[in-house]
Write a structure and sequence with these properties.
Layout: E1 2-3, E2 6-14, H1 22-36, E3 46-52, E4 55-61, H2 68-75, H3 80-99
Length: 116
Amino acid sequence: MKYGERHRAVKIIKESAQLSKNSNKLKLAAEITIPMELDHPNIAKIYEVFEWKNALGIVIELCEGGDLFTYIKNQKKFSEAATASIFQQLISGVNYMHKQGVFHRDIKPENLLYDN
């Protein structure tokens, strides 16, 4: 998807029986709208949320490099400098979130995206 001159990704969350309950929709909406307020270079930006058919669409910043888990698996070996850079970016983003009163609750390599 292209917004102006920038490309965006759309994550689709299909509505399940569990999600169709209003209380679960409100929880999910809160989990999405809170990060929309964050603005940090090491946190993927959420731009918009919309309902589409029986699903939610989340428009996010496009990170074309994939996730950290795949990157680690493919590299097999890292220099100390590369490891320090990744760790510094992670800690910078987490520190910013905590200062905003936001906690991730599921930090793992599969959920950490990187850009080329």
